[in-house]
Write a structure and sequence with these properties.
The complex is a heterodimer. Chain A is mostly helical. In chain A, helix 6 packs across helix 7. The radius of gyration of chain A is 21 Å and the shape is globular.
Chain lengths: 334, 159
């Protein structure tokens, strides 16, 4: 027994109550079967989203509702967690997302409303920093990365480089923090996310016909799939790739997701399976009574729920067939 | 130290350690329950029941302490006994089972009950099963109390 894991008693008790209010698969099915976007929202108004739904003036505004919900949940979990700094590691991803959006907006000269107000750095501060090229307030690695992006972009003019540099910093930072907090659970989560990102990069590189040298540069370190093994797969056909990786944890994901991606050209199956994979990993720790796992699991469950609502709403508004929406819906955490 | 003083250390340990066990146990469940009730106030009654479970070790400790005090004559009408060291140590030893098992089982029963709060959050109708799990831990506190009582009754204070 660790000295005092019961510091989690309150927060886990609270999360247990919150978990019961997550939307289940049948609720999403009802939303999908609804006749229109408005009807789908009506189904949503029977749930905890009721108050937020009534405030919507237009069905197209659901994005604001989801973004506010995500922020509320992150704030809540951070507040009730005995180790808020560990929850904050999960918000870092949003800082990086916002930075990517801001950098791209700056170089393409457009305004953006894709920012997500969940990160650890205030959005106004981020916006100011990027616009004024002043990254003094950023934590060490991020600052270095932001400066690199500026230099790199002036030379290469390639927006992809923004994503690459920032992802490298993000995951390096996450792995370092997981080590600092001595959390094998968080480290396991981040390693899996790195693996999934690397697999995605590999397929992209394959499809774009780029060479090994490029892949070598962009693969994230610290994953459980060795980089040289992934690099050696660049020129291999799909079948041998499946064989090569079928001993790894990702066999099913590759078999099904990668096949569809390479054969039909859509990544949506892969993306769904990748999310489901993380959900399955987090579900393993769900029933710990005194631990960080249920808190992180609930946060992820909420992110997936919000993603699912978005998929359904976008599908309904654009009148996609029900089957097409159903295929994209992520497994719920319940 | 006189035998009487040593016997009273036994009483203090029984009440003190078993009480600490219960306090920690009840404290853990209280935190879990407060988390649940923040979101779902209707669960107060059920969680209170779970919180009470790890409280018994403290009561057993107090019972053992009372028995020692009575036999030694600290309470009651009989005059206080003057005990040999050996007799005093016998009382101290007799208090050990409930003192140690009370401390440890109180904490673990609290952990089980705290987990059962999560069970009640999701399936309130299964409260009974949560209680049964916690009561399994209780068994060992009861056995320890039994051992303590048998030992106490076996001590000959007049010889």
């Amino acid at each position: 027994m660790p000295i005092d894991d019961t510091i989690y008693a309150y927060s886990v008790g609270r999360v247990r109550a919150l978990e019961t209010r997550l939307l289940d698969q049948s609720r999403f099915e009802r939303m999908i079967d609804a006749a229109s976007g408005e009807e789908a929202l009506k189904v949503l108004s029977e749930t905890d989203y009721a108050a937020a739904v009534t405030e919507l003036n237009d069905v197209h505004d659901f994005e604001y509702m989801l973004s506010a919900e995500l922020k509320n949940i992150f704030d809540l979990i951070r507040d009730i967690s005995p180790r808020p700094e560990m929850i904050a590691t999960l918000a870092l991803r949003y800082d990086v997302h916002n930075l990517k959006v801001l950098f791209k907006a700056k170089y393409l000269g457009v305004k953006t409303d894709l920012l997500i107000p969940v990160g650890t750095v205030d959005l106004n501060k981020l916006e100011y920093a990027v616009n004024e090229d002043d990254y003094r307030d950023f934590p060490g690695d991020l600052r270095q990365a932001a400066e690199n992006i500026n230099e790199d972009f002036l030379v290469n003019r390639d927006p992809q480089i923004i994503d690459l540099i920032l992802d490298q910093v993000l995951y390096k930072q996450l792995i370092t923090l997981a080590g600092e907090y001595n959390s094998a659970f968080l480290e396991g989560l981040f390693i899996r996310q790195i693996d999934l990102t690397n697999l995605k990069t590999l397929i992209r590189v394959k499809r774009m016909g780029l060479d090994r040298e490029f892949l070598k540069k962009v693969l994230l370190p610290h994953g459980s799939l060795p980089a040289d093994r992934l690099i050696s797969l660049t020129d291999e056909p799909l079948e041998s790739m499946i064989t090569a990786l079928n001993m790894s944890e990702y066999a099913d994901l590759i078999e099904e997701g990668v096949r569809e991606w390479l054969e039909k050209g859509t990544a949506s199956r892969f993306e769904k399976l990748a999310d489901d994979y993380i959900t399955a990993y987090l579900k393993k720790g769900k029933w710990k009574a005194f631990a960080l796992e249920p808190l992180v699991g609930y946060l992820w469950a909420k992110e997936i729920e919000i993603k699912n609502i978005r998929i359904v709403m976008v599908g309904k508004i654009n009148q996609l067939p029900a089957e097409a929406i159903k295929e994209r819906i992520r497994n719920v955490y319940l | 130290m006189t035998g009487t003083e040593i016997a009273l250390i036994g009483a203090a340990l029984a009440v003190g350690l078993a009480g600490i066990g219960s306090a920690i146990g009840v404290g853990i469940v209280g935190q879990s329950a407060a988390g649940l009730v923040t979101e779902d106030p209707d669960k107060f009654g059920q969680t209170l029941l779970l919180q009470a479970l790890p409280g018994t070790q403290g009561i057993y400790g107090l019972l053992a302490g009372f028995l020692i005090m009575q036999e030694v004559g600290v309470i009651g009408d009989a005059p206080m006994l003057v005990l040999e060291s050996a007799q005093g140590y016998a009382f101290l030893m007799a208090s050990i089972p409930i003192a140690i098992v009370g401390l440890v089982s109180g904490i673990y029963q609290g952990r089980v009950s705290g987990a059962a709060v999560g069970l009640v959050a999701k399936r309130p109708e299964e409260l009974g099963k949560g209680i049964v799990y916690a009561v399994m831990v209780e068994t060992y506190a009861v056995l320890a109390l039994l051992a303590t009582i048998l030992l106490l009754f076996g001590i000959d204070v007049n010889g």
